[in-house]
Structure formats: C-alpha cells, structure tokens
Task: inverse folding
C-alpha cells in the first residue's frame, strides 16, 4: 500500500528498528520511573548530559561516549546527595540539574559553530540512525534486560516501600544505584533517537499509558514496549506524510497514546458505574426491549460482569497510601479521625474514660477500663508482594464491647488478636470487621498471641516459651528457645519479635516450620533497662524501646543486634527504620534526632508548646516512611514532622479536642 511506502526506504527502516529497540529499552527503565515517581530525576538526567555532549563535540569525540560520561557523573552525584538526611532528595537533584545544564550552556556559548550539534542533541535525528547505532541499542537493551531481571526483587521493594529492601536484606543502596544506572542507560542510549527534550516523553508516556491497562509490573513493561513500538511506527508514518520532525512526532504520538489510554480508562469506569447503579426508567425500558434479542430465545442469562482486580465493595481504590490518625481525648472521651490526605476531621462521638488506643493497621481499638470500642478508620493497604492496593472508605463506629483493658493489637488477613494488659488475647474475625460486625473467634487465656504465617504465635509466661498454635487455638509445636517473662511484641517483615527477660526472640517461618533465634542483650544489661514495649514503623525491621532511665534501645532485626543510645530519660521514641534518624522526645518538650549507629545527635527542635508535666499523658511519636506525627495535648495539636529535614514541622493539625492518645492507620 502506498501509505506504507516510507518503510521501503533504507534509512526509514533503520529508524524503525532504532525506535523499536528504544521502545523496549525505555519500557524496562520507564516502568520504574513511573511507579517510583522518578520523573523529575529522569528529566534532570536527560538535560544533565549536555556538558559531556558539548565537550565531546568540541574535541571531535563520540557524542554517545560524552553523554554517557556526563550522565554517569550526574548519577553518582544523585546517589551521593541522596544519602544525606538534611534535605529532601529532589533538592539535590534540582541543584545538579541546574549545575550541569548551566555548565553545558557555558561550554556551548564558547563555540559559535555549535548550533547544528546542539539542535541534534535537543531534538534528535531518528532518520540518521546508522547500523552501528543499532548495535549500540541492541547491547544497551540486552544490558537493561539483565539489570531488570537481576534487580527485580530489590526494585519492587524500593518501589512500594523504600525501606522494605532493608528488611528483606536486598541491599537497597546498591539497588538504588543500579536503578539510577538503568535509567541513565536508557536516556543515554535513546537521546540520539529523539533528543534529550523528547526522550523524557518516550520514557514516561508508554509506561504511564500501560498502567491504565494492566497492573502487574512485567505486564506493564510488555505493554509499554508495545505502545512505544506503536508510537514509533505511527510517528514515522505521520512525519513522512506530514513533513514533520520525526523524533518529535514519535514522542508526540507516545504522549497521545497516554491520553487515549487515560480517556479509555475513564470511559470504562463510567460504563462499570452505569452497570452497578440504577438508571432512569427509559434506560430500563430499552434494556427490557433488547434482552430477548440478546438472549436469542435461550433460557441462559447473560454472563455476569467480571469483578475488577482489587475491587472492594464500598471502598474507593487510590494510587497512594491513604493514612489517617485516630485520636482520643481522655478527659472528654471525644474520638476523631484526621485524614492526612484531605486534612478533614471526622467526629465519631465520645467514649468516657478512654485511656489507650491501638490499631491493627485499619481498625482502631479504644480501651476504657472494662470496655473496648472499635472504630473502622476507613483507610487500609493490601500488599500482594509485587503490587499494592490502597483503599479509602468512610470512617465508622463498629460499637462497644466489654473486655479487660488492652495493650496491643496484631492482625493478619483473617484474624485480629487483641492483647489485654492482664496477658490474655481475644481473637476477632477480621473479615467480619470489614463487613461492619464484631465476631469473636476465641480467647487465648494463657498468653500473648500474634497472628503470623496462618498460625498464632503465643508467648506463654507460665511456661516461658513461645508456642505455635492454629487459629482455633490448638497447639501444633513449641519453640526450643525459652522466653522468660515475655513483654512486648512486634511484627516485622523478617519475622515476629518477642521481648524476653534475656533479650529478644525472633520467630520466623519457612512453610509450616517455625524457628526461633535469640538476640541477647549486651553483657551487663540491668533488668531495669530491659525493653518492655517496642515502637517502629509498620513492617520495619528496626525497633525502638526505652532502656529504663538510661536512654533508648535500637534493635536491628536484620543484623540481630542491640544498640544502646544514651539519651537520658525519654518520654517517647521511634524510628522509620534502618538508615533513618532515631527520634526521641524528652520531658522538656524537645524533639531530638540521633544517628542510631553512632549515637550522635544530629538535630533538635521544640514542637511542643510546653514541657511534659508529671502525671500527664505522655505524647507519642508515630512514624511512617515519609513523616513523623507528634501529639501535643496541651496545644490541642498534632505536629507533622519531616524527619529528613532537620525535624522541620511540615504541617500542624489544630483540633478542638486534646489528642491524648492516637494511632495511624492506612499503612
């Protein structure tokens, strides 16, 4: 056909093959760019190549080699600056972006004859791709495939939880460097095809469009490669017949495919909503009229519409975590939910005497003497390993039941275990809680139960051991390692930690086999300094506990070691995980940041309006992967602290109640 005539020309054929290879290369790297939110980094890397290209052009060298050297320097700079905690990562990226681009412009300005080469650098020349360029692209695509396969697990962990790689032992810093290197490789290899100003679109648009069609990462990569190939094919045709710039047309076509995918997703949602929502009488009459025609006289009903992946009735799926705080005022009994995304405050009435709040990640459990109130905070996360679903729904009260004062709650997908201060555990059906009802599955009267690996781990003080039981309470085995006087427990991605009189006991599971490993205290540790309650970011393998009046313990579950940080008496402490700052609140109202490894204080701030009075409810420090939250009952405020930026107060939530207790849900 005449409209395919351009592909009979040899240089257009080479352009097509080059574009197809770039599409595969950009799909491998661009998927991580889109999922990790690295668009600004990619843009900075693309423009950061200018000094190397300029120097190579002035010296008569290979432009690709110059671009590679400049991009490598940019990648090293980003990696080095990203290790610091004094400012956010995008600050360092922005400084390098401006610095490298400025250096390139200065070099270019010293050479009046550089205009043609600069145009090619900015806009590319896809029709000038030679056979040698194709072999470079083949080698780059193969190298990118190897990096993607070898680093897949670490890249997934970095994408969905920046500290998950720490807990899984996947060496996140080298993995992050490898991921930046993968992006650098794609940009350097692709800029000759579409130029630095347009490679950004080809790197971002196809993977972003693919997200609207598929959800699993390998399928996103394959779909992105197919969309990139389609953009290349269509862009070359359009540019030939419309006499437009080939590289720019390819990138514009890729962006157009993104908007088509977005529109298609919107239409699908509208159609799905129309099928689930009652329509006006006219639509019902039309459906009634055409139903016999569709059925063709058979007795079979039309097939039911498939349930979308991740669909939860009554909930809205979001593209990021939807954290909320559940706060309680001990004096008035007021209970409120603070939405950290919208900043809305939802009032859930009162519960007299509430003195403690705990959570299993979604549900908040409020304790008041002999009563317990359950609140569905309406925000939760479902982790499927290679991808995560985030949900939000209206907060609601699930009612009050009698029971002993509680201390902590742990849960898995099937059961929530609520541990009382007396040591027993009540088991609730978590699916029923999600449906709005409270169903008790049983009571473990003799110990502290923690759901783990489809079983219950029960710390039995009378036997000084950890027993493995079914969810119905039947014992299946017992660990050989003793755990005298168990107090405190935590669920991490590396296993369950129990606090024992002689250290911590880490319990892990491989299939149906459970093993325990003792992490003893350092020699000479006094009994008064033992850890009795652990604080940590949900899932993190770095735990914090008070060490009597001496300071704070930091338990690194991955390294299986205790570190004592001699801070003096503390009111509250927490940390986001390995490599993050240790946050400590002292009675004078000062918030301190320490390097957990060296014990050196790195920052101090005064977020509280007054010192913590004796006998007053102690403030809490809650930590997630981005921010810390500190309640200030006297000022009726909750402070959002950026612990990576010298303890800067990012936001302050002013309430009409005293937030004496709080928990974070949705993570």
Result:
């Amino acid at each position: 056909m005449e409209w395919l005539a351009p592909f009979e020309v040899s240089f257009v054929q080479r352009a097509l093959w080059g574009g197809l290879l770039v599409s595969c290369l950009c799909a491998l790297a661009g998927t991580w760019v889109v999922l990790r939110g690295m668009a600004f980094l990619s843009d900075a890397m693309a423009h950061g190549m200018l000094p190397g290209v300029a120097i190579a052009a002035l010296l008569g060298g290979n432009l690709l080699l110059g671009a590679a050297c400049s991009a490598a320097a940019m990648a090293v700079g980003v990696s080095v600056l990203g290790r610091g905690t004094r400012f956010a990562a995008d600050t360092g990226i922005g400084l390098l972006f401006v610095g490298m681009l400025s250096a390139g412009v200065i070099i270019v300005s010293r050479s009046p004859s550089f205009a043609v080469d600069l145009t090619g650098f900015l806009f590319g020349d896809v029709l000038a791709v030679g056979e040698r360029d194709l072999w470079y692209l083949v080698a780059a695509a193969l190298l990118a495939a190897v990096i993607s396969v070898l680093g897949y697990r670490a890249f997934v962990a970095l994408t969905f939880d920046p500290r998950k790689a720490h807990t899984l032992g996947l060496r996140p810093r080298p993995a992050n460097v490898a991921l930046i290197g993968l992006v650098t490789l794609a940009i350097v290899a692709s800029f000759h095809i579409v130029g630095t100003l347009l490679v950004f679109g080809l790197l971002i648009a196809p993977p972003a469009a693919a997200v609207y069609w598929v959800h699993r990462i390998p399928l996103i990569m394959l779909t992105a490669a197919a969309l990139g190939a389609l953009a290349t094919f269509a862009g070359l045709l359009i540019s030939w017949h419309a006499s437009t710039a080939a590289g720019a047309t390819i990138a514009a076509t890729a962006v157009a495919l993104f908007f088509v995918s977005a529109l298609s997703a919107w239409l699908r949602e509208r159609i799905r909503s129309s099928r689930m929502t009652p329509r006006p009488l006219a639509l019902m009459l039309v459906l009634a009229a055409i139903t016999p025609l569709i059925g063709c006289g058979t007795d079979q009903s039309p097939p039911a519409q498939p349930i979308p992946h991740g669909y939860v009735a009554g909930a809205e799926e979001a593209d990021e975590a939807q954290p909320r705080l559940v706060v309680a005022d001990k004096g008035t009994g007021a209970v409120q939910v603070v939405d950290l995304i919208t900043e809305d405050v939802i009032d859930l009435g009162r519960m007299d005497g509430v003195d403690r709040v705990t959570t299993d990640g979604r549900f908040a459990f409020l304790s008041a003497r002999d009563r317990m109130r359950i609140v569905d905070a309406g925000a939760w996360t479902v982790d499927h390993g290679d991808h995560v679903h985030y949900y939000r729904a209206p907060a609601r009260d699930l009612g009050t039941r009698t029971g002993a004062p509680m201390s902590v709650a742990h849960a898995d997908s099937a059961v929530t275990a609520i541990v009382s201060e007396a040591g027993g555990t009540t088991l609730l059906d978590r699916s029923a809680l999600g449906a709005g009802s409270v169903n008790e599955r049983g009571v473990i009267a003799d110990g502290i139960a923690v759901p783990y690996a489809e079983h219950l781990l029960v710390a039995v003080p009378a036997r000084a051991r950890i027993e493995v039981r079914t969810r119905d309470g039947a014992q299946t085995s017992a660990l050989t390692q003793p755990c005298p006087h168990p107090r405190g427990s935590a669920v991490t991605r590396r296993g369950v930690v129990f606090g024992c009189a002689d250290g911590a006991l880490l319990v892990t599971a491989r299939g149906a086999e459970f093993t325990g490993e003792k992490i003893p205290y350092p020699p000479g540790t006094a009994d008064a300094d033992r850890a009795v309650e652990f604080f940590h970011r949900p899932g993190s393998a770095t735990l914090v506990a008070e060490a009597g009046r001496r300071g704070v313990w930091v338990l690194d579950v991955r390294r299986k070691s205790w570190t004592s940080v001699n801070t003096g008496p503390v009111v509250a402490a927490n940390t986001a995980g390995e490599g993050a700052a240790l946050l400590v609140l002292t009675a004078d109202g000062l918030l301190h940041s320490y390097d957990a490894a060296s014990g050196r204080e790195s920052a101090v701030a005064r977020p509280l309006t007054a010192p913590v009075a004796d006998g007053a409810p102690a403030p809490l420090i809650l930590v997630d992967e981005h921010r810390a939250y500190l309640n200030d009952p006297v000022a009726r405020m909750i402070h959002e602290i950026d612990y990576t930026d010298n303890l800067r107060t990012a936001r302050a939530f002013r309430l009409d109640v005293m937030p004496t207790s709080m928990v974070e849900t949705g993570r």
Notes: The chain has 15 helices and 34 strands. The first strand starts at residue 316 and ends at 318. The longest helix spans residues 246-276. The radius of gyration is 29 Å.
